[in-house]
């Protein structure tokens, strides 16, 4: 292999040939001079970031072009991952590690008086997503490249990604995010890749040359979709895949001669209005706001992606009937599901295929991943909105539905209500298109993201569709990339692991099982413990200028980091913290603990924002109290994002995964924390159940209601007041919050939160789980304090048994079972270097 392929990723400058260091140094200075127009004396830290990124990008480009050419040449089936979100984070470290140039880059920068870690901090976050769903998309592209699947992600080139969060007077304030302000050195603009995307207008019927009636969509306005490409190298950089992000451009130039002064201004205004489509990511996690601009974003990116996919297919193949054989399109949630009627429209109206053939191609090409069963998150769009913006698609959806329901009535003649329930159109309270039903009917496979979630799909909202298509729903439990979440985030622990079992685990995570015997080795336990301590100190140092007061690295670091949502129950965590505070005051023997919470609330989600305020108010009182502050600290870490996650994961002792059973589809934060050696305290929900199966239930702390219990209690009538009345500790905690103990200047501030738990019915059953949660917390604490050595042993066993949750294995499973392709470089092939 040529020497641009990765060599190693542990710095060992001594072994480096001078020539290589000088070569990288020359490239850096070359970019500085010719790309930025400066010499080393004038370069700012950001300049150094730009030139380092460009230098690393140069190394990727050749393999990238090779990969694309190879995919074309081999005629391999192409995989397209359509996702409205890609939560990528920073790329410099990831790309340096993938290309194996860490040592030489560090050495070359050192000669120039620069430090790679400091430079990496200059990179803005590519935060083109809200949370788990967007991060999954980013992990999958990394894994597809690593295992050699020729995959491509399609998304939107948002000018403004996820908002920045600052905490002011305890409250979340959203700061506009502007990651492109100083240019993105990783991306390539492709202005020549441009597709007009239509909105509005009307449909006309006409007869083609053969006298057949056809329909055609015309009029309205057009927006141009234009491409930006982001190369994503697999580990070892044998394959470099691509994320193609669509930006929006006005379709009309300005004809200066035609416009008088007033028209000119109006024309510019109109043009920038059409460009608003790619302006901003919707910051809602788990709710659908139903905004028109969001609807346009969905169609815009689905339509541009399909146009691009068909163009590439038609370069090689004449026969569209072969599309499912050569192309798989994965729909990440329902956001791209308008792709189903769009592909039908392209096949019928533009390529003149009859309905039956077009439909077969469609279903053979698409597969759909469901991410949530929460009713408020399930997308539906008003028929009236389709009528106005996508009239042809509405006709097609009606036709899909008519044929589908005919079939349903034919197969189940006695069941009059069945057609109403499975219809793509909801009739009440207004006519709306059910996007999940559309995606389900238009796909050959529909997957849930953890076994419990998939079972609940079959039994719950998709039960009727499951009866109609019994082979369609399959499970593919989520995974994470071990490159970012262990190798990059936790170099200390990674080095320790590699020193003992080699580095094969980085592309074959099952190899971590070789650590199991080491869990019984005292020396290894001591080394892992020291590494955890070091990670906690590192996090404390980083947090030092963000929060007041140092953290105690010998205390138990208890971590809950994820979007703020009632179903994830950060509030239950806070209730426990207050209870500990009370116990400390009562003189109980309570071990020192640092509770870290981080996460963003959707800007319109009042209750989530109220919970952030409560966390900060409670932190304020507890952290100031001289009687307790040495034993209990509550920290809200602001602006949770991928880079902050990379700092927190290695430092966690305890991972809180405490969602109401049946509500968290999978979770992936649970996997990141466990892979870094945190023990889990959690409910039997999402992927927690499968993590327990792998690591052993004795090595985590399960508590509380199961999904079945929750369902039964809901059915039989749940009354939180019964639980409050029988639990004085809970009643006391609720009273303190309600009486303004944590908001003395505004005693009523937190009353609405408490009312949601009492008179409000406690939808997420915190009161029912409170007692069991305390018990599990005590059990965890006992182990941590009384037998730290055994804690570490369990922590090592946890790490060793996380192989199942590598996204590499997950995408290989998708490849075989859903996409019908075989990976070209099995992960094992990477070890020859
Ligand atoms: C992994 C990740 C998530 C998902 O966390 P969950 O605990 O699974 O909800 C959200 N945000 C960021 C930044 C992440 O890295």
UniProtKB/TrEMBL annotation:
Reactions that this protein is recorded to catalyse: [(1->4)-alpha-D-glucosyl](n) + phosphate = [(1->4)-alpha-D-glucosyl](n-1) + alpha-D-glucose 1-phosphate
Coiled coil: none
Record GO biological process: glycogen catabolic process
EC number(s) recorded for this UniProt protein: 2.4.1.1
Cofactor(s) listed: pyridoxal 5'-phosphate
GO molecular function annotations of the record: glycogen phosphorylase activity; pyridoxal phosphate binding
Domain of life assignment: Bacteria
Matches recorded under InterPro entries: Glycg_phsphrylas, Glyco_trans_35, Pyridoxal_P_attach_site
Gene3D superfamilies assigned to the protein according to its UniProt record, in alphabetical order: Glycogen Phosphorylase B
GO terms under cellular component: cytoplasm
Alphabetical UniProt keywords: Carbohydrate metabolism, Glycogen metabolism, Glycosyltransferase, Phosphoprotein, Pyridoxal phosphate, Transferase
Function, as annotated: Phosphorylase is an important allosteric enzyme in carbohydrate metabolism. Enzymes from different sources differ in their regulatory mechanisms and in their natural substrates. However, all known phosphorylases share catalytic and structural properties.
Protein name: Alpha-1,4 glucan phosphorylase
Organism for this UniProt entry: Caenispirillum salinarum AK4
